[in-house]
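Margin note: ligand = manganese (II) ion.
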Amino acid sequence: MTKLTVTAAKAIKVGNAKHELVVVPLFTNQAVAGQSAAVDAAAGGVLQRAIDMGEAEAKLGKVTSMIGTESVARIVAVGCGDREKFGRDAQLAVTGAIGRSLAASKAKAATIVTDNVSDDADSAASFLEFLARDVAMGCYHYTATVGSPKPGPVLTKLSVAVGDMLSAAKAKAALHNGLAIGQGANVTRELVNLPGNVCTPSYLAKEARTLGRKYDALSVSVLDEKKMESLGMGSLLSVGNGSDEPSKLIVIKYQGGNAKDAPYCLVGKGITFDTGGISLKPAKGMESMKFDMGGAGSVFGVMQAVAELNLKINVIGVVAAAENMPSGCATKPGDVVTSMSGKTIEILNTDAEGRLVLCDALTYVERFKPAEVVDIATLTGAIIVALGHEATGLFANDDSLAEALTAAGQASGDEAWRLPINKRYDKQLNTKYADMQNIGTGSAGSITAACFLARFTENYKWAHLDVAGTAFQSMQKGATGRPVPLLVEYLRQK
Ligand code: BES
Ligand code: MN
Ligand code: ZN
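Resulting structure:
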């Protein structure tokens, strides 16, 4: 992947300067003016001609590429719709389109003229943040396991001409924030896209140590199976029983606040491959279960972004990593295991394994006396039935935490939608043979899964993000980097 640098300037220099590519926003019923007009003049007036001919349009998200002159080789006009309606959703439509079009272009350097996107400094800052984030994410290209990779995006330098919209310092900060979030999301995507034979629990542990070496504020420790056994993590360990790959509990600590400040804990489901175990999944589509460590991957991306942003809080990321395989040693339906909390669990379906690794990790984080705990998991297929691939499922035992996460999702364009948990659903988990069973008896599978987790999180404020529909959509589309933008926004508000 190419390294991207992002800088802000008040104005784009045209005349002697040579530009490979300049992006110009177009608003409905607004003449090309200011810096855009200067760029168009240097490009020989192609933009105005394209507008006059109806070729370039201000329709939201519409991208028109034009060849200019030696001075401005390419102009890319991006439709922004009505300037009065240029709120968050419209901004995101535009920054997404710019990200995709710069990634597809052959330009190594690009300048974006933004002097006309808003009169309000805060809204301008949010636009710049989305811009840096979406360009960074647009330039992500998977090559890790491809022998002869197809050429990917070549953009390495993004300049933004911000005019008088906001101060240079504010512009720089917004771009830096966006870049940190985009690069964090790309870290997540890379880990999540890797195949199960590369990205094993041990591989995740190694990557965590590498991340820890990269940032002074991060420290990493890894609990092996022996250590987990001594802590009584019988539920987590039961998932890896059928696998030759040893399970790992990975702890990544970020200290940006005072040592005694209660930390925010993130707990990620890290099933590096989910065959279903003895309750084996059907062959068709099973390959997509390499994405079953999407929650864990998001913990890595968030921890990097938090370190990069120097947030003044403490954050602890915990990854419960295991491989779910059938074998002669595998856990069987009907087996009863004892979790770290002391509660016993009857495993009626070995494919409901995410909750089994998470419950012990959720008990483990009690020792940190957390301010709040959020777990992230590709937990249930049922959440895709409920919310599709648009919103992440959100569950919580605390209303203000649920509201904070919902708001962070809205603000970042990485939406989450709350669903209920209560005793009417929870009672589906009761069984004769243990304190609970690991699957419900009826419908609402995402809710009963959350109710299962809620039984282990009574001692702190907790939320659960079911990202089965949002961390990835299909093998071909690959990992999305969600919910990194949501989580970074949530932590930034602390
Ligand atoms: N990893 C799956 C959930 C999943 C499904 C993630 C589709 C992403 C896309 C999880 O471990 C699982 O198998 N859940 C079962 C639970 C059931 C056995 C109660 C499911 O959703 O079918
Ligand atoms: Mn499963
Ligand atoms: Zn799973």
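The CA atoms of residues 101 and 205 lie 36 Å apart.
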